[in-house]
Amino acid sequence: MDCLTAAALDALAHPDRPVLESRLRVAPPNLGHLPDNAPPPAGKVVYGGNYANHLETANFTINWEEGQGDAEMAARAGESLEAAWTYFVDEHGWTPPVSSDRFYIWVLLVDDLSGTGLTTEYYTDIFPQGYPVIYLNSTWAYDAPFWSSLSEHEFHHSLQFAVRDWSSSEGGAETWYWEASATWAAELVEPETAALDYVVPWYGDRPEVRFDDTDGSHQYGMFVFNGWLEDTLGEGPETMHDVWTEASSAQDATWDTILASATGVPAPELFARFTSAFGNDLYARGPTWQDPARVDLEDGLEGGALYLGARYYEATADGVVTVTVEEGSVLLTSPGTPRGNATSVSVAAGERLAVVATSDPGAHWTLHVSAGPDDTGGTADTGDTGAVSDDSAAPDGDTGGVPSEPGGCACDITPPATALLPLLVAGTIVARRRRSRR
């Protein structure tokens, strides 16, 4: 996936800056022009004039120049676009894209796009606020699952334009949630797809960077955050909608503030809960989502992360982990402490601890591991063998220091995969239970 949304937002917000893609500013001549004195349409019509090659569906006009697409590509894109329209607009009440009440949404198949897809806005007297146009790079149409997810991804950007003013954009801080949302949107439309599993390591290999980082395609990998947000914290597919609704009335707010307002959970706790759940598979993750990068937990380990980024550690034995923070502030999370604790948590062998930097620009820390302040480590106490791996990490005589069942946590509330086979082969893919859906 290599969507050009960041470039589009930058071009719209800063019209004097040079652009690599002329399409970011200039609409093709066919688009957005009606004959003089055109009568009001009885149904949806094309806003402008069709290309020689075109296909209309209920809500879209898909056009291509000879050699840049074909009817079969257009039909597949149209099917996916309509599925996304049905899911988001008809079934879940998202605001339809601007212009779509009267006109088909323009979709262009092109083979010279520098990314895999692009959704931008153009301006006319009829639509001074801008109307969306979707570009799909037809060179990727050969990969049917990816072509489908790309179409759904780009359509979701047209929904985002309808509610969020791009003028607040400055660099990646704004665009990361646009991409995380559009990527998750494809998963919502096609819940059984594995077409975007290859994107997961773009978060999991670099979880320590800022939550809104866009280097290394991190923003796409953060779709796993939206997966957790809906499966665990909120009300299913309405949760991401709630976030975007909040964003529509908070145009100058940053996404950490918007997410906290929309969910009622402070951003540090929100990301602590997410990292604990993602690291320990405590929500309905995809069956082949790759685990995050992690190291074995040892006494004296130093670590660091940027704001709302995290480091993951795997416990090799039961124990209590405390932290010395040299810079900034952190929350320690574990399956038994999903909301996070600033000083210490208990972990069982095999569980994963996450440390989240809760201060901006970040934090640096040292971890300390012990059998627990109340445990002698001796063999006289009931149920305690004296071995660290078998120690309950609880007061002597207490065998229940750490929850044994991860599911018992107290949570209350760009290219296709074929181009990334070396990455996937190099990583360990852990089989996961099938994602449940509403």
Radius of gyration: 24 Å
**N-to-C SSE string, H for helix and E for strand:** HEEHEEEHHHHHHHHEEEEEEEEEH
Question: What's the helix count?
Answer: 11
CATH class of the domain at 1-166: Alpha Beta
Structural class: alpha+beta
Widest sheet, order of strands? 1-2-3-5-4
In short:
The protein is of the alpha+beta class. Helix content is 29%, strand content 18%. Among the domains are: 1-166, Glutaredoxin (3-Layer(aba) Sandwich), CATH 3.40.30; 294-408, Jelly Rolls (Sandwich), CATH 2.60.120.
Structural account:
- This protein has 438 residues and is an alpha+beta fold.
- Helix content is 29%, strand content 18%.
- Among the domains are: 1-166, Glutaredoxin, CATH 3.40.30; 294-408, Sandwich (Jelly Rolls).
- Strand 10 and strand 11 (337-341) form a beta hairpin.
- It has helices at residues 5-13, 71-91, 144-163, 172-189, 201-204, 218-221, 223-233, 238-248, 255-263, 267-280, 421-426, and strands spanning 53-56, 60-64, 105-110, 117-122, 131-137, 294-296, 302-306, 310-314, 319-327, 330-334, 337-341, 344-347, 352-357, 362-370.
- It is built from eleven helices and 14 strands.
- A five-stranded mixed sheet has the order 1-2-3-5-4.
- The model is unreliable at 373-438 (pLDDT under 50).
